[in-house]
Amino acid sequence: MKIVTLFALSAAVKFRVHPTADDEWCTGNQFPLDVDASYHAAGLAKGEDLFNKEDLSQFQVKLGQVQEWAAASPWHLRVTVNSSLSSEVKFGFPGTGGFLMISVPPNAKGELVVTDRVGAAQEPTFQYREGPARLDGDVVFTKFCLRPKLCGEEDFCQDGWKAKSGDALPGNSRMECCDQIQCAESDKVDGCSGTTWTKKPNFTELQGHTKEQCCQPLLCTADVCKGSDVKVKNGTGILGSTAEECCEPAYCRDVECPSMTEYTRLIHNDDGTARRGSTAKDCCKEAKCADLDCGASPRSAWKNSSRQGLGSTYPECCDKSYCADFTCQPSTKWVSRNLSSLRGGNTEACCQPLTCKRYTCKDPSLVLKQAAGLLGSTDEECCELKSCKDYTCSDATKWTKRPVLVDGVLRKGVDDATCCEDIFCMHSIDCEGVDGSKWRTKKPLELQNLQGSTAKQCCDANLCEAYTCSTDVDGDGDGTKWYKKVDTNAHKYQGQSDEECCFPKYCSLYTTKLPSSKWKRNSTVGLLGSTDGECYVERRCVDEVNCHALGIAVNVTDEDRLGSTKDECCW
């Protein structure tokens, strides 16, 4: 594992104070040269050494004398750099592709740290390894710290291991820094103490830190459990050597009596608690026929007899019951199956039910109850009053449906009074606003408690027989623009207007006897009338004829002269 740290990358960053060779981190510094000297990399080509020939010789001799400087040993390297290069470059020791490699970022100024294993111990040298073929700037190295990594710098000894002796032991792994714990010295093993473990043979020589590694289990046996009210616990591989660990209560519910019918197993004590025991003496008592209630048999297929002796079953102690001797009650809900050989002595066994779902209510105001499984064959048993939700008010103009639920329960009823609410004329209609002028409001006394919501129910009719059409000046029913509608025995016209009580006379149906050269038809669409004055307009010479255009010297100037021809208007 390689760790490289750059504490400062440019002059703009504040640096921490440079460490010295006596810094605690660098205790045991093995750098063979002057740690405070400056070493320049300017002009180096790839693969060339940072140190000059004399320094390199001293570097190799002294570092080769350090016992910990060996292949695969973990070492720390820390150095302060000042780079003028604009690109990243790498320096490190040669061997196995390079080790303790330091990457110097562009324009770096600060401290770099790396941890790595020694790739090649012989003839060590610190070289320019990666970057341009030749450096065109400088990287200044100073404050070198080179020392082995110590076991105490990292916790390698987990469960089952202990640190090797020596405060300055170099190492970077469990195998280098730790010894395996012996069973005899493990706190977890605790000498295989307790009632569930015992020491393995040659315990004092075994390595391990758990009871599974160092001890062998003590398994429960039946010999531990004494007395008939306890038994060895169910299951295999249960650890223990005491009754508390190996035994559990024995209950009579798990005991088989000598005879299943002549003995009764006592499962509970008199107070209702579970009975303890593991033998017939503890858990069984004689069963006597005299104690058996034959009538409690399924379908009451057995009845009590005078038999004596031991037994706990119906065939041993009871007489047979037959449905032929049983009467189905009540007869409105049950009817006999009529099978004389059928065994039984109760309603369920001997009778078949009369279900309400097969019954038809006789009272038309009733409906079948919806309860499932209801028995019966009468209106009282099977029927209930119909609900208002199924009722339709007799006249929708006089009644409105009440809410079908009352306090969450269906409202019952089969008539208007129960299921419907009155609609009164006084609140339901404005007679004067209905259908033109055909109706008028009744007198207040007449409206009291009067039901309805239509004009016919609630209003008095305005009859046309009392109306005179417009232009009927003599009252004979025939005017120049309208003529009276005539009532029949089956129908009387209503209203107080020409449109409601009269038929129109259209000018389009009238033809004048006056000369057409002096009168012309009024062109108004839908015009009413039956006289010349209503349906025609005068033709005046001043509007109709230009005498000058016809060669006459003088035009007509008489505005009252009628006509539309040369002969009538020009002279």
Task: Give the structure's gist in a few sentences.
The chain is α+β, with helices and mostly antiparallel strands and 571 residues long.
Report on this structure.
Keywords: Signal. Residues 1-15 form the signal peptide. The protein has 571 residues and is of the alpha+beta class. Among the domains are: 5-149, Jelly Rolls (Sandwich), CATH 2.60.120; 181-217, no CATH class; 222-249, no CATH class; 254-286, no CATH class; 356-385, no CATH class; 431-461, no CATH class; 462-503, no CATH class. 13% of the residues lie in helices and 20% in strands. It has 16 helices and 32 strands. The strands form 14 sheets. It has a five-stranded antiparallel beta sheet, with no helix packed on it. A hairpin with a 5-residue loop joins strand 4 and strand 5. The chain is flat. The protein starts with a strand and ends with a helix. The relative contact order is 0.05. Residues 1-22 have low confidence and may be disordered.
How does CATH name the architecture of the domain at 5-149?
Sandwich
CATH class of the domain at 5-149 reads Mainly Beta
| Oligomer category | single chain
Structural class: alpha+beta
Which strands sit side by side, in order, in the main sheet? 1-6-3-8-2
Q: Given the C-alpha coordinates, what overall shape results? A: flat
Low-confidence stretches: 1-22
- Give the fraction of residues assigned to helices: 10-25%
On the 0-100 scale, what is the average pLDDT?
Answer: 86
Largest sheet: 5 strands, antiparallel
Bin the strand percentage. 15-25%
The end-to-end distance, rounded to whole angstroms, is 138 Å
Query: Count the strands?
Result: 32
Rounded to the nearest angstrom, the radius of gyration is: 63 Å
Q: How many helix segments? A: 16
CATH topology of the domain at 5-149: Jelly Rolls
